[in-house]
Amino acid sequence: MIKAIIIDDEAKSRQTLEVLINRYCDSVEIAGTASNVKEGISILEHIHPELLLLDISLSDGSGFDLLSQIKDISFEVIFITAYNEYALQAIKANALDYLLKPVNIRELQAAIAKAEEKITSKEKKLDIKALVYQLTHTESAPSRIAVPVTDGLKFIFLNEITRLEAEGSYTRIFCDTATMLSSKPLKDYEDILPTETFFRAHHSHIININRIKHYHRGDGGYVTMTDGSVIDISKRRKKSFLGLFQL
User: What local confidence, expressed as pLDDT, does residue 135 receive?
Assistant: First the structure.
């Protein structure tokens, strides 16, 4: 039996995937589940699975953030996502597998079968590490920014930012554990933040596309972020927004 772990921040998704695997994938045993990066790292260190089914977007970061913190990736990975994200291009390029939500049974079985074949392959570590490096080391983009605050400068890693909101000529930045008010206008942040990750949703908001949980269709539509906030997408920016996900 292949020992597997599921990491997904949505309880219903975790439960559904576990039921599908138990019912249709006889060679896989679910040894544990986790809902975020912190829990995921802990369970990986204790259980040592052969297979990880990993959601790309988690409540406290991304699946790639999690993998970048694992020193010895000795397991196979199947990525899971609700969107046809830009990161899927890199996943394909590195010959790794992914599943789109809602998970299709046949696609799940095919991905599991492929993972079984690669479980004993020493090359799998290199594939996964190459992908993580590609998605977490972009030389042309900054890894963190300096934010002017009342008592000086605060340095923030980009993967900690969920969204930025204009407050007059100031900008409020919403991060994992805190919010802060910057004396810079939102336009300045639009100019310095990498466009592959941050999108100007409308005149008063920039969002981290890796922190989107759900896109709701409409004239422009709106998104629900991992922090629970709801952000409108302006009608004139809708096409550009959907283009980020090749839609």
Answer: 63
Burial class (CB in 10 A: 0-12, 13-18, 19+), 100: middle
Quote the CA–CA distance of 111 and 222 in Å, as a whole number: 32
Asked if 177 and 159 count as a contact pair (C-beta separation under 8 A), the reply is: no
Q: What angle do CA 66, 206, 218 make, to 5 degrees?
A: 100
Is the preceding omega at residue 102 within 30 degrees of 0, hence cis? yes
Chain centre distance of CA 156: 18
> At residue 45, what is the residue type?
E
pLDDT under 70: residue ranges of the chain: 83-90, 92-95, 121-127, 129-131, 133-142, 246-247
Superfamily of segment(s) 2-136: Response regulator (3.40.50.2300)
144-243 to CATH, choices 3.40.50.790, 2.40.50.1020, 3.40.50.2000, 2.40.50.140: 2.40.50.1020
- Taking only the tens place, the pLDDT of each residue in 169-187 is 999 999 988 899 998 899 9
- Residue carrying the six token digits 């009608």: 235
Choose among 194, 1, 244, 217: nearest CA to 112.
1
